[in-house]
Amino acid sequence: MGGASVLLTHGVIDHVTDRRGETRHRVIKRAQIIFQNSVIDCTVLDVSTNGARVRTNAIVITPEQVIVQFRGGGAFFARRRWSRGMEMSFVFDRPAPLNQNAALVALSAFEALSAKGLEEAVRILRVSGFFDDPVLGQAAEEAEAAYARFETALRARVISRRA
After folding, report:
1. Where do the structural domains in the chain lie, given as residue ranges?
2. Right CATH number for 25-95 from 2.40.10.220, 1.10.10.60, 2.30.40.10, 3.40.1010.10?
């Protein structure tokens, strides 16, 4: 495997190769680090479907295993990969249970998916800010792209049939 290099040029991250095997996207999102009886507010600086880099308002010592919960509702059991000052990097192990409000939004979107279609399910999640969850956000983007490709292919077949 080749080495990784991420260049910082004029404040912009240039992802040449990424040792994580997946590019993280720069964001500014609110989240919380949850462990034992502690809840630490943080800002997500970059995120992928497999992890995130966060900044807290003070130096915080966390256990290796925590839950990272995004403001929009998504939550992940995560392992601390590194910690430097007020910044930490986490690798997501698996989704964590949703809080009650997030679970109700997810259920509403799930029910809308079969009853009203993909567009309505995605709309419900967007309005609630649920796409702070990087896994769900990526899955929705892929579903919307696949839906658009399918619709285009069907339209081409219908038009060619009429000709």
Report:
1. 25-95, 100-162
2. 2.40.10.220
**H helices present in the chain, as ranges:** 100-116, 118-127, 134-162
User: What confidence tens digit (pLDDT) does each residue in 75-88 have?
Assistant: 999 999 999 999 99
Tens of pLDDT, residue by residue over 8-53, are 433 434 333 345 566 777 888 899 999 999 999 999 999 998 999 9
pLDDT digits (tens, 9 = 90+) for 107-123: 999 999 999 999 999 99
Taking alpha carbons only, the member of 133, 119, 56 closest to residue 89 is 56
Q: How far is CA 27 from CA 24, 105, 120, 155, in A?
A: 9, 23, 25, 37
Reported as half-sphere exposure (CB side, CA atoms, 13 A), residue 57 has a value of 7
Residue 21: both structure tokens together: 């095997």
Q: Supply 62's token pair.
A: 């966390």
Compute the distance between CA of residue 85 and CA of residue 15 in angstroms, rounded to an integer.
24
Length of the chain: 163
